[in-house]
Design brief:
alpha+beta, Chitinase A, domain 3, 50% helix, 13% strand, 304 residues, 3 domains
Length: 304
């Protein structure tokens, strides 16, 4: 069931995209609105002389509700049209105030245009290119071959300084509880779980953390603090297990997306080769490391 109150109350990103494309097509000419109406079908409404075309309205309805307008009630169609009218009124007001010429707004409109046209190009190129069973099987084998052979279950305590981490290690050497120290001293969000990070593969970790984890034996903790951009870690390996490849049929839909993405990337790579590109971007200053405690050392994997 379509929740129209949700649709009508949330920010209308689809409308912003439509208006961005319309602005790109129409330019600043006085008869731009008339040309747009001719290209997009009859106008379902006009706002200060600017048409909202049937095509734009139909696209918005399908995108917002997942249904064509013909499957909605008259009241529902009217509510959605009111939403478009309101957006057009606000867009015209913003243009009168010169907001479309502001740097951030102009950049957002430009990026919206690029995104929509790229998606249209992708859809057009991939028409009729449904992956074959052989292609899916080949991609499955590629993905399986790239899988890590083991998963790790570990806990950690994140602190701000090396000295602090060494004091944690000294307490562990004397028999202190790792989980209790994590709850009391760790700066990481996993502290509430005693530092437990759950199951993960090394590729999900920042490199120094991954290297330390894979060097540990089950039940062992690091006797030298491990430094990452997030601070200093004391890590304990809880367990390991072999990684089993999921059955082909269970990941078939995902494989379809991967194969299609690779096909489109190959197409875009060919276009890039033939394009004349001149890069004029200056050097980027080195990014400062985030302050200790500002993030999690590794992405917390979903519960297994």
């Amino acid at each position: 069931m379509v929740n129209f109150m949700t649709i009508l109350s949330r920010p209308v990103v689809l409308i912003a995209t439509l208006l961005a494309l319309a602005a790109c097509k129409q330019g600043a000419t006085a008869d731009g609105g008339a040309r747009a109406a001719a290209k997009g079908g009859a106008a379902v409404a006009t706002v200060n002389g600017q048409p909202i075309t049937q095509d734009a309205y139909d696209f918005y309805v399908r995108s917002a509700t997942g249904k064509p307008a013909t499957e909605l009630s008259g009241e529902q169609r009217e509510l959605l049209l009111d939403n478009l009218v309101r957006a057009e009124v606000m867009a015209q007001a913003a243009e009168k105030e010169g907001l479309a010429r502001q740097s951030e707004t102009a950049s957002a409109l430009q990026l919206a245009r690029l995104e929509v046209l790229q998606q249209a190009a992708r859809q057009k190129y991939l028409e009729g290119k449904t992956p074959t069973e052989a292609e899916l099987r080949a991609e499955y084998e590629t993905q399986v071959a790239a899988m890590p052979s083991q998963e790790y279950k570990a806990s950690h305590i994140l602190v701000a300084t090396e000295d602090y981490a060494r004091r944690i290690i000294e307490k562990l050497d004397k028999g202190a509880s790792f989980a209790e120290l994590a709850k009391h001293d760790s700066m990481d969000g996993s502290k509430e779980q005693g530092g437990d990070l759950g199951w993960f593969t090394p590729d999900r970790m920042v490199p120094p953390f991954a290297k330390a984890v894979t060097a540990l034996r089950k039940g062992e903790y690091t006797h030298t603090p491990v430094q990452t951009q997030f601070g200093w870690h004391v890590i304990r390996l809880e367990d390991t297990r072999d990684v089993s490849a999921p059955p082909f049929d269970s990941v078939k839909d995902r494989l379809v997306q991967i194969v299609l993405q690779k096909k489109f990337k190959s197409y875009s790579d060919e276009l890039l080769k033939s394009a004349k590109v001149e890069k004029k971007l200056g050097p980027v200053p080195a990014a400062a490391a985030p302050p200790p405690g500002s993030g999690t050392a590794v992405p917390t994997p979903p519960a297994s």
